[in-house]
Amino acid sequence: MAAAAVPRQTPLTCSGHTRPVVDLAFSPITADGFFLISACKDGKPILRNGMTGDWIGTFEGHKGAVWGATIDRQAKWCATGAADFSAKTWNAETGDELNTYQHPHIVKTVDFSADATRLLTGCNDKGIRCWDVASTDAAVVTMTGHTGSIKKALFDTTEQLCISGGDDKTMRVWDIRTGSEVKRVTLSAAVTSMELSQNGSKLTTTHGSTVTFWDPKTMEKLKEKKTEAPTFTASLHPDSRTYVWGGLDNMLHVCNYETGEQLEEYKGHFGPVHCVRYSPDGEVYASGSEDGTVRLWQTRVGTEYGLWRFNKPGDAAAADTNSK
Questions:
Q1: SS3 state of residue 33
Q2: Backbone torsion region of residue 12, taken as left when φ is above 0, otherwise alpha when ψ lies between -120 and 50, otherwise beta
Q3: pLDDT tens-place string over residues 79-126
Q4: What residues does 297 pair with on adjacent strands?
Q5: Rg of the chain over CA atoms, in angstroms?
Q6: Is-contact 49 29, C-beta < 8 A?
């Protein structure tokens, strides 16, 4: 008897953008499912169904490349940061623009607090700002100290602190209540991505040709893996058993978290991979690339999920019988 064929990884290509896709974020699972937002240099962030990649809507209002995007935990609000020196919040259900937060330079990163009443932004003026979402007059606090542009800024699980990474080859922890720096970690290259795991226990970062995992409470290094190419992004699976990274080689690499061993490698993009994120259920991961596309990849290749359907053993024989 011939062995069953191993299903081939066939990513879903989500079109709609016209320039490089530079940031992605999934919402948590809600009563209506979960959602995916993408930030793109075309200035038009897109909201999609997180399982299928189907287009839901485009947020129109920025007048420059959009560098950062996120969704709140209830999937009711979205936030974006752009080259027009502003961050904006949006109604995820209607697409309406809610508020604009003016900055002195390009906004590269945005993050909501758990209750979506505060917005964290990182700017090319080297400052991190925490805003009251309901007030656009001025940030509640501005944290300064980085000597290069901010790549990413995230609330920690306590939301009394935040963690930032920048072009100055440092990660810093800040006390949002006082605006003061409380810890600094120096790296060998500029930070290219940061992600806090779903349970808040691990911080995943990339810099140079390195993926590193940290304890966000202590900023102690947990694991580190050198990569075969410059690495722009990485995401840890919700079960912490695997992670996926992408970068200059246009590929997606899935690795074992404990050993760092590469388990899978996939080609599909036609340009460097700028961002990758696992879905909240861990069944897919989304990637965004210089080629202007978002792609959804299966974690368990061959599993029927979303738009993926596969012939099962015996299907062909059954079809032949029914056709007679």
A1: strand
A2: beta
A3: 999 999 999 999 999 999 999 999 999 999 999 999 999 999 999 999
A4: 285
A5: 20
A6: no
